[in-house]
Design a protein that fits this description.
Helices cover 28% and strands 30% of the residues. It has 285 residues and is α+β, with helices and mostly antiparallel strands. The strands form two sheets. It has an eight-stranded antiparallel barrel with strand order 1-3-4-5-6-7-8-9. Strands 10-11 form a two-stranded antiparallel sheet. β4 and β5 form a beta hairpin. It starts with a helix and ends with a helix.
Length: 285
């Protein structure tokens, strides 16, 4: 939930901001309303702003002191279908619904049957990147910087909900088929990180928010050593045993499957094609 993200950075929600419940038909209508285009996309925490007690600027507003985020370790993505996701580098994951009130410039985030209202202020940096301030009070806000602009097909975004259910820890042990399905969803997600980077013409590739067992090479796909599996990936399974089953499935396919060679001169494009081939090959197996 969004409140968890804010508490992680030392900010607590203002009280009394829960939105009243509405009939189901009205909720459906709300979710189909067009969303403000400048909100859609993926954002990364860049810092916390707190007002200095008793210090007033010439425009009559409190002077703010900018405190960089400790590790800038959280992403939040807003999609046109009224869903949002939140992903952290420590395994945090939330999916929910969002709405926007243009009259009050407030965003409403709903997750786990709770709705929170946050004031929003959007600006642009000199380099054209969008900037957001989530305003909790006149003296407290959270700053976010554009991390990824919206994609033409938003369901192919790596942080869209259906591409991230591998992150949700199951309540009970899974069958081999379920473990394979979880592994395949993770592989598809990782492939989408590469494809979205091409569409957005990014000059970097980062898996820091998608840590797992895939290792990218120039050109090639490998697997991390078993004693170097990220803890966040292990913990997305019901148990370490289930996670190691998934690891063995992936490693076995890398050694036994047939792999087409790609040499386009663009390692990101080639690695994406290889990973898609691996995903599709494992899906047929």
């Amino acid at each position: 939930m969004m409140i968890t993200m804010m508490q992680h950075h030392g900010i607590i929600y203002r009280t009394g901001s829960k939105r009243p419940s509405r009939p189901a038909r009205d909720e459906i209508r709300e979710r189909t309303k067009p969303k403000p285009a400048n909100m859609i996309g993926t954002w990364r925490i860049s810092g916390v702003s707190t007002g200095n007690q008793g210090v007033i600027s010439p425009d009559g507003q409190p002077v703010r002191q900018f405190e960089p985020g400790s590790k800038n370790d959280m992403l939040i993505s807003f999609f046109p279908d009224s869903t949002f996701t939140r992903v952290g580098t420590k395994g945090e994951y939330t999916v929910g619904q969002w709405d926007f009130d243009t009259t009050t410039s407030s965003i409403f985030l709903t997750s786990n049957r709770n709705t929170e209202e946050i004031g929003v202020f959007i600006t642009y940096a000199d380099n054209g990147l969008r900037l957001i301030n989530f305003e909790f009070s006149p003296t407290e806000s959270l700053s976010l910087t554009e991390y990824g602009r919206k994609l033409p097909r938003f369901r192919e975004d790596p942080y869209f909900g259906q591409n991230n259910w591998w992150r949700i820890k199951p309540a009970r042990p899974e069958t081999d088929a379920q473990i394979r399905a979880r592994l395949l969803n993770y592989l598809a997600h990782t492939a989408s990180v590469l494809s979205s980077a091409q569409i957005r013409e990014q000059d970097y590739i980062s898996l820091e928010f998608s840590q797992g067992i895939v290792r990218l090479y120039n050109v090639g796909i490998g697997v991390v050593k078993k004693d170097q599996i990220p803890s966040t990936w292990l913990e997305s399974f019901h148990s370490a045993d289930d996670a190691h089953k998934a690891y063995d499935m992936f490693e076995d396919y890398l050694f036994t499957g047939k792999h087409k060679k790609y040499q386009s001169g663009n390692w990101v494009r080639d690695d994406h094609r290889i990973l898609v081939d691996i995903h599709n090959g494992m899906k047929r197996k």
